[in-house]
Amino acid sequence: MTEAMLGFIGLGNMGGPMAVNLAAAGNALICYDASGTAERAPDGAQHASSAAEVAEKAAIVFLCLPDGPIANKVAGELMAAPARIVEVVVDNTTSGAGEARATHDMLAEAGIAYADAPVSGGASGARAGTLAMMVATSDALYTRLEPLLLPMAKNARHVGREPGQGMAMKLLNNFLSGMAMAATSEAIAFGARQGLDMATIIDTVSVSSGTNTAITDKFPKRILSESFDSGFATRLMTKDLQLYVDSCKQLDAPRRLSETLLEQVWGQMLVDMPASDFTEIYPFTLTRDK
Ligand code: NAD
After folding, report:
1. Res 1 pLDDT > 50
2. 170 assigned to active site
3. b/e per residue, 234-264, with b = 16+ CB within 10 A?
4. Ligand 1, closest atom to CA 35?
5. Taking the CB of the first residue and of the last residue of the chain, which one, N or C, has fewer CB atoms within 10 A?
């Protein structure tokens, strides 16, 4: 099923290839990115000069923006568009659950439906269309959206009906991912001190009980090769973990490991290596280890 014209705002590492897959599935798109639309939009897509212009031409608008405050601001610009036809906003940004609820409530006052739908799988998953997408919205809206989501996210899941539940799922996932990266870096640094070869550690642990996504994906593809090119910035990993810890505090949920991970690892790495890819955690761990 295709919708008349879809909007896509935020064409970065994730949004750029997601928009390409949405267009490749036969959907007409109008796109906007504040850093320059023409060089980021898929071939054949219309280029808007503002979020408001997208709101005036598309009934369903996807957002894939750096963080919740920016997504909320852009949602406000969609609402304020004088001749808007937008009726649904699908937010692929990773925001906090509270930020997603705030955006939902703001849009609801203008009669615009909202689905929080953050993604996991990195830039390579975005290019391949194999992302996981964690969608929270009504059953009816999920049914309408699913054919649009699947070309971008083969692993789309309807995780809940309450706004913010998709974001909560994403944040708990990224806590686990950030922990796997940090723990695996320490374990491999230990192995190296014992004279074990990194490739051998990866090969062995990947078929043993310590296996995780860092061992099966990030280390063999991005760290062993020293390409450090996952496309997921340390600043975004740290943002996600901060949101997770903040939510834990609000809910008085257990957070001993996540607070330590934020303060001792990712927060420190952001200070030392502010422009790094998150796979640079291994050289960061080696440096901090000395
Ligand atoms: P990015 O920084 O590469 O892209 C964000 C894009 O938004 C940029 O092109 C920027 O110019 C644009 N933008 C910023 N403000 C804007 C505005 N006001 N109006 C229009 N465009 C604006 O980020 P990304 O890596 O694509 O991540 C996007 C979201 O997806 C983030 O919330 C991130 O946490 C999440 N995410 C990223 C990854 C990853 O591996 N990169 C994986 C899963 C989820």
Report:
1. no
2. yes
3. bbbbbbbbbbbbbbbeeeeeebeebeebbee
4. 11
5. C
